[in-house]
From TrEMBL:
Full protein name: Haloacid dehalogenase
Classification via InterPro entries: Cof, HAD-like_sf, HAD-SF_hydro_IIB, HAD_sf
GO cellular component, one term: cytosol
Phylogenetic placement of the source organism: Bacteria, Bacillati, Bacillota, Clostridia, Lachnospirales
One Pfam family here: Hydrolase_3
Length: 271
């Protein structure tokens, strides 16, 4: 099979547990791009949070694609042209921010440049700022402070409470929003039908690439549709069981160059 696009989740997939792209994995992806294969970075992170990995693999030098907010915003890495963006309507976003006060979750929102939270002690706030290289402004009320377009609402939650919360939190909005687990401590609210697979399909249509010409790598539940969409879906060795069950291949973990290991078998010029 001749592949034309490699789609990569970031946390737990492209990045190891130290939040770095290893030299072997970076080299494999740079070589793939030199051979004309496009790379799409697909993450729940804000757009700004993709830039570090974009530079690490030279994605910006080869018209790679940045799929941020789980697909809520899609950008050409070289030109920064916005290919697609879907926002939560303002009134709905304000309503949901008030509604979330009934749950043991801590909302964190962003305007593309910085985060906003209601307390410096917000669970995982430091982690999110560090992971995305973004600062945070503390405000008395996120709902009152919302004067910008919102692509998603991130909430942090204690891992032991996450699945109980996830089972009920989205029910009043199930016709308008998706509430998705994106990490053991994150639940994110996004516009309906926004996910990585839908975004990848849009990218493929724009680039004239067929699904069977796509390799996709992931580790979490929000990567499932993307793995199923791709002609060759790869679950990392550290992936959740649902992803491993759905994947065409299970590779090594994100700490063991799983992406490079797989690509070296799939792409002849890397062997």
């Amino acid at each position: 099979m001749s592949y034309k696009l490699i789609a990569l989740d970031l946390d737990g997939t492209l990045c190891n547990d130290e939040k770095a792209v290893t030299p072997r994995t970076a080299a494999a992806l740079k070589q793939a791009q030199k051979h004309g294969i496009r790379v799409a970075l697909a993450s729940a992170r804000p757009l700004h949070g993709l830039f570090r990995e974009m530079h690490a693999i030279d994605c910006d030098k080869h018209h790679g694609i940045l799929i941020a907010y789980n697909g809520g915003k899609i950008v050409d890495a070289s030109t920064k042209e916005i290919l697609s963006q879907t926002i939560i309507p303002h009134d709905l976003a304000v309503e949901v921010l008030h509604y979330l006060k009934d749950f043991p979750v801590s909302p964190i929102i962003d305007d593309g440049e910085q985060f906003y939270a209601e307390s410096e002690d917000t669970y995982k706030l430091d982690h999110e700022c560090s992971n995305n290289a973004m600062d945070c402004t503390i405000v008395p009320s996120l709902a009152d402070a919302l004067d910008f377009d919102l692509v998603k609402i991130l909430t942090s939650v204690q891992p032991e409470q996450l699945y109980d919360v996830l089972s009920v939190i989205g029910k009043p909005y199930e016709d308008r929003l998706e509430f998705v687990r994106t990490a053991p401590f994150y639940i994110e609210a996004m516009p309906k039908n926004i996910h990585k697979a839908a975004s990848l399909q849009l990218v493929c249509e724009k680039l004239g690439i067929r699904p069977e010409e796509v390799i996709a790598f992931g580790d979490a539940e929000n990567d499932l549709e993307m793995i199923q969409f791709a002609g060759h879906g790869v679950a990392m060795g550290n992936a959740c069981d649902a992803l491993k069950d759905a994947a065409d291949e299970v590779t090594l973990s994100n700490n063991d160059d799983g992406i490079a290991h797989s690509l070296e078998h799939l792409l002849d010029f890397l062997s």
